Every structure is written in structure tokens, then in C-alpha cells.
């Protein structure tokens, strides 16, 4: 085994950059595979071996690999979220959550006008802020790798792609149920309906719970993945 | 030796077994270790290895760790607790299959034959 020369490393980086990979995890793995493989050969064999690697790592191979990795990342995040939800299915935790819900309901009931509206929007603001922090942390991790390989294209962690989709889903639901009716109907009567308030409140609890599981999943994966 | 189809079915077991013996390994290291152990008779292709590793990771049998090595980042795989349990069951499954295969290939062997 030998160390590759600077010129050889540059050739490897060029070959990898040409692939236009978008998943940081796949990029790291393929680059390491190339270098580890080439290090086991003599300088004279470098060109042939690099050519052979290029034949193996064609678009028809790495593109489905990338797409499937996105799917497995999604599956993994869901699995972690589900295990977190399951860990909450114990009586002490259910009772504690019920107490928190009752206190929140009482506080929410005593709020008036604009403050009531802000109380619904605040958790959403916290969600956006948290996602911003997660995205920044991941960006800093991936930026180092991109800089090292010399890639300028849009590369990000597949886990971040999935997390951002889920955050967008939460925000999308919020827009659909809270903001859009405000635009199309000028203070509709059903806004004051007990059923609507109850549904909004339950929905808010659901999205806070979902958000909580999402952040817990991020905490687990951030220790080992590029997020 | 063209044994790709034979390996396909047992690739996950091979990966899990190697990771049981070695605390953590990276993709290329796995291919080299298999080549070394079988004197080059079995070669795991990249086309099969990485999808299998990602699948095992998604199933919660493997965990990953990103580490800085020389001037690059390397992704290491290791067994999770579930993965450690799975190795035992996969190994006995494979062993049973090989024994049965041996009986089919050499019918003269006694029924109590064990590898």
C-alpha cells in the first residue's frame, strides 16, 4: 500500500466530481473506495485501475445507489421515530403528557385575540428555527467534504433531504389548515366553532409530537451521519 | 470462478459474520477481507456490496460512523445489538442450508452428517 501522489489524487477528485453526485454519504463512500483501491496498486497501474473503477462506477450504478440510499435513509428515520413513539407508550409518560395537555389547554383558553394566534404560530417558528440549526450543522459538515474533494455542485446529506421534506410537510399542513382559510375567508364563522378549535388544537399537539420525534431522530443520527 | 449467483443469497450473512469478527469495517475493507479469506475465489462486487450494506443499515442491523482518515472521510460499519443477534440466526440458517445441499450432492452421506 502506498500514498497517492498529489497529481493522482487530483485525477481521482476530477473523476468523482464529474459524476455530479448529490448525496454526501454516497460521495464519501465512493471517494474512499476509489482511493483505498488505488493505494493498493503501483504507480504504473494507476491509470488502468482508475479506468477500471470508472467502468464499475457508471451512472447506471451510482444513480440507483443514490436513489435507494435516499429511500433507506427515509426508512431509517421513520424507524427511529417509531421507536421513540413506542417508548412513550407507558402509563407514567401518558399521564405526564395528559397533564401537560390540560395545562396548555387552560393557558390557551385564557389567551385572547392576537396572543391566541401567536400561541399557535410560536411552535411553528421554533420548528423553523430548529430546522435552520440542523441544516446549518449539516451544511458545515458537508462543506468540509466538498472542499476537500473540490466539488462545487449541490451535495447534501440524504438524511437532511428527508428531514427537510418532513419539516416542509409540517409547515405545509400548517399553511393548509390555518393560513389558507384566513386568506380565502374573511373570519369565517366556523373559525369560532368548538369543533374547529378542538381539531386545530389536536392537530397542533400532533405536529408538536411529530416534530419532537423528528428532532429525537436527528439527535440519534447526528452522532454518526452527516447531519 | 463464476459464483456471483451463489454469493448473492448469502452476502448479508457474509457481511454480518465479518463484522462480528472485526469491530468495524469500511466498504473496500470488506471486499478485500473476503478476497483474502477465500484466496481470491470469492470477489464481492461493489454493485452488490454497497446496496447490501445500506439495506442492513436501514434494517437497524448495522450502525455507521464517519471518521477522518488521512485526508478524507471514511464511513465505518459495525454491528448493532440487533445485528449481533441476527448473525447467530443467519449463520445457523446458512449452515443448515449447506448441510442439506451437501446431502443432495452426496446422497451417500449419513443423515446425521454435520459440517
TrEMBL record, chain A:
The chain crosses the membrane at residues 88-108, 120-140, 160-183, 195-215. It comes from the Bacteria. The keyword Transmembrane applies. Keywords: Membrane, Transmembrane, Transmembrane helix. This is Uncharacterized protein.
Automatic annotation (TrEMBL), chain B:
GO terms for molecular function: DNA binding. This is DNA-binding PadR family transcriptional regulator. Pfam families: PadR. Residues 15-87 form the Transcription regulator PadR N-terminal domain. It comes from Algoriphagus iocasae. InterPro entries: Metal_resp_DNA-bind_regulator, Tscrpt_reg_PadR_N, WH-like_DNA-bd_sf, WH_DNA-bd_sf. Keywords: DNA-binding. It comes from the Bacteria.
Amino acid at each position: 500500500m502506498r500514498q497517492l501522489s498529489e497529481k493522482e489524487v487530483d485525477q481521482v477528485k476530477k473523476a468523482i466530481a464529474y459524476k455530479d453526485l448529490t448525496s454526501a454519504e454516497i460521495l464519501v463512500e465512493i471517494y474512499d473506495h476509489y482511493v483505498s483501491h488505488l493505494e493498493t496498486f503501483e504507480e504504473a497501474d494507476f491509470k488502468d485501475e482508475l479506468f477500471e473503477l470508472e467502468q464499475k462506477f457508471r451512472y447506471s450504478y451510482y444513480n440507483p445507489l443514490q436513489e435507494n440510499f435516499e429511500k433507506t435513509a427515509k426508512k431509517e428515520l421513520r424507524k427511529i421515530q417509531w421507536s421513540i413513539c413506542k417508548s412513550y407508550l407507558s402509563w407514567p409518560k401518558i399521564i405526564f403528557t395528559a397533564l401537560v395537555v390540560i395545562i396548555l389547554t387552560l393557558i390557551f383558553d385564557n389567551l385572547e385575540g392576537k396572543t391566541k394566534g401567536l400561541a399557535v404560530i410560536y411552535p411553528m417558528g421554533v420548528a423553523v428555527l430548529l430546522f435552520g440549526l440542523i441544516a446549518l450543522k449539516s451544511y458545515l459538515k458537508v462543506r468540509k467534504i466538498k472542499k476537500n474533494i473540490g466539488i462545487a455542485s449541490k451535495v447534501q446529506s440524504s438524511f437532511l433531504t428527508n428531514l427537510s421534506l418532513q419539516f416542509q410537510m409540517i409547515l405545509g399542513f400548517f399553511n393548509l389548515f390555518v393560513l389558507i382559510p384566513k386568506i380565502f375567508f374573511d373570519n369565517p364563522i366556523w373559525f369560532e366553532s368548538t369543533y374547529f378549535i378542538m381539531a386545530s388544537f389536536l392537530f397542533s399537539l400532533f405536529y408538536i409530537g411529530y416534530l419532537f420525534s423528528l428532532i429525537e431522530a436527528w439527535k440519534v443520527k447526528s452522532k454518526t451521519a452527516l447531519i | 470462478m463464476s459464483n456471483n449467483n451463489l454469493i448473492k443469497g448469502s452476502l448479508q450473512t457474509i457481511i454480518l459474520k465479518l463484522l462480528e469478527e472485526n469491530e468495524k469495517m469500511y466498504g473496500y475493507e470488506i471486499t478485500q477481507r473476503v478476497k483474502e479469506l477465500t484466496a481470491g475465489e470469492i470477489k464481492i462486487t461493489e454493485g452488490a456490496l454497497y446496496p447490501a450494506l445500506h439495506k442492513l443499515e436501514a434494517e437497524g442491523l448495522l450502525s455507521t460512523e464517519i471518521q477522518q482518515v488521512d485526508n478524507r472521510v471514511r464511513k465505518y460499519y459495525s454491528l448493532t445489538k440487533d445485528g449481533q443477534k441476527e448473525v447467530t440466526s443467519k449463520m445457523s440458517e446458512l449452515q443448515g442450508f449447506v448441510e442439506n445441499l451437501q446431502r443432495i450432492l452426496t446422497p451417500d452421506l449419513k443423515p446425521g452428517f454435520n459440517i
